[in-house]
Structures are given as structure tokens and as C-alpha cells.
Amino acid sequence: MKRHKALLGLLLLSLAATCARAQETGYAYGYEAFSRLIEESYRLTHSQGLEPFYRWFEGAYARHAGESLRQALEARRRVYGELKAPQRAVFERESAIWAYRTVKALIPRFSLERGYEFAYAVRYGERQCLLQSVIIAGMLQRIGMRAGAVMVWKSLHGQVSNNGHVTAVLRLSDGHDLLVDASEPQPFPQHQGLFTWDRTQGDYRFLEPVYDVDGGIRAYGVVGRREELKTQEVGLLSLDFLRSQFFYYRGERAPGGFMGPSTPQGLWASARFLEEAVRAEPRNPLPVYVLGLVYRKQGRLEAARRQIQAGYALYQRYGFVPEGPKAAYVWAGE
Q: According to the UniProt entry, where is the signal peptide (predicted)?
């Protein structure tokens, strides 16, 4: 019996470790995971005949900077590997500024309508918060740095949203986290509310970052609790979550879909993309909730109620329920 309990304990520890690792899945620029995101974008937008993203992006960089992007990334990787601890955080910040400026220069136009697709960055020169954050984080990962992305639920001006924004995050060698946001005129904004992974609970959490005088995050306050997490206790969003978010934006912005004016065909497209978002990460509250709103528009009222209630439960579990899900939850209970 003792041996059985010991084996069970080891299994649970293994599962916990696997879950923690899953939240840190990398997507370095040029590597397989990053390439899969590009391929998915091209396939879903029927852009197979379009110039390949890497060729376009690297050609634009060569014209902009007069050097090869791959060589620039590799040169930074070599320098970074040779630096001693006190110098690394300075180089990390400088590399973040370089990636921020590169993305803003090569993809100059911001578009909520289409900017989440790699294919549309090539076709229209457009980007939005998720795409730019994944590219910045991917470039920094390629250099060998710890970088990723988180959702923003409260902006640097204190404006609250339903996870309405995404920003890149660089984990500095000095133990601080640094937000890197190409939507802002300066690279390192101090957003007031973030949504990401709580390693201590093995779950997502709404957090309020605590900033140091240098603009880096030194800790995270847990919303709804008088508690702070150290930066090493907070993980970044997984690749599954980011894929879910790409599908969320496809569903949100489908022509004739959720954002309206709606058509039956547009709502069907919105529902299809949002269902894929939920499959990619069932714990992402935004597509779970918004899928319920789409079902309601389609007249599928029982499915809508179930979906809205499921989304509300996730927000509640993570520590904060935005106004939209609150109002929809009241309707779902009628």
C-alpha cells in the first residue's frame, strides 16, 4: 500500500511538472512552432500563393537595416552567450528595444480588423497586438532569452477590458520582468493588469504587476487576494493559449460575424473559429464566453446559456469577472 501511494505521488509530481513545462513551450523565430503558426495563418486565409512570411520579413529587414536578420539574430545570440551576469540584463533590454523597433518598422500599420494574421502582415503590412507580441518574443527567444506573451486586462492608463490586449514579456537576468509593447510609442509600458499563468496554483490568474523604479516588474499582486507572487512564480502564456487567441481573433473579426452587422454565414464562421479557440485551450475564458454570445445571436439559446455560464465560472476562478460576462451571466440565469 505504501509503495502504491509512493508511486501515485511520483505520478502526480510528474504530471505537475509536465503541466508546468507545457506553459513554457517555446516558439523561437524560425523554429518549428513559430513556423506552424505561419503555416496555419496561410492555410486559413487561403494565401498559399503569397510570398512566404520568412522571405518577406527578412527581405524587408535587409532593406531596412542593410544586414541579414538571421545573421543579426545569431550575432546577438553569440554575444549574449558570452556575457557575464551583470551585463546580461543591459543587453536584454537593448535587444528588446531592437526587436520592438524592427517589428514597428517592418510592419508599419496597426489593424484590429486583419492584423492578427501572418499572411496579412505580408499582404497588407498590418499587425495587431497578438501578432507583434509573438514576433517580438520569437525573436528574443531565438537570441536565447526567456520571452513570451501575456494578456492585458488593465492598461497603463488604468482602463479595464476583458483581456482586450496582448503584450510581449522579457524575463530579465536580474529577476525582473519587462513588458515590450509595439502598440505603444515607448517600448516598455507599465500596464496595470495582466492575465497569465500562476505556477503556484497551476492555473491562470488575473494579476496586478508591481513595478520597480527601473520600469521592470519585481512582483505580481493577485487580484482578489492580499498576496504577492514572485516573478519566478509566474509563467508566461503557453503556445496552446496563443493559438487559442489567434483563433479567437479570427472568430471575433469574421466578416458578418460576431462584431456585426451579422449574417447567418458570418455567425457560422465566427462560431467555427471560436470553437477551435476553445479546443486549442479550453481554459481560455474569452473565447469560451464569446462563443456563448455568438450562439445567442444564432438563436441557439440553451447552448448559449451553457457556454456563458462556463465562461463566467472561468473568470470567477481566475479572480476577476469583467462587466460583459457579468451581464451575460444574468441573462443566462433568466
A: 1-22
